Amino acid sequence: MPELNQPKFERMLTVADVCEYLSVTNETVYTWIKKTDIPALRVGRKWLFDKAELDQWIKSGKGADK
Asked: How far is CA 59 from the centre of its chain?
């Protein structure tokens, strides 16, 4: 049976992962969630971030003014 051509699933980043990736604190990430349009998904009590969308958000400069 041939394989289905499905996009690769990239691992979602947690708040801790974002902190490490961007060298910022938890407080900064939660401030971005409250005050900007940072691409984040809330699952239960956890926030998750798609790395590609986060990279695009960073490149757009939308979080720089907050």
From this structure: 13
Please count the helices (runs of H) and the strands (runs of E) in the chain: 3, 2
Q: 36: which DSSP letter?
A: S
> 46 forms bridges with which residues in the sheet?
43
Give the model's pLDDT for residue 11: 80
Q: Is 42 helix (H, G, I), strand (E, B) or coil?
A: strand
Integer-rounded Cα Rg, in Å, for the chain is 14
CA distances from 11 to 8, 18, 34, 47 (A): 10, 12, 23, 13
Collect all residues with Cβ–Cβ distance below 8 Å to 58 and sequence separation of at least 6: 22
Quick count: other Cβ atoms within 10 Å of Cβ 40? 21
Single pTM value for the model? 0.78
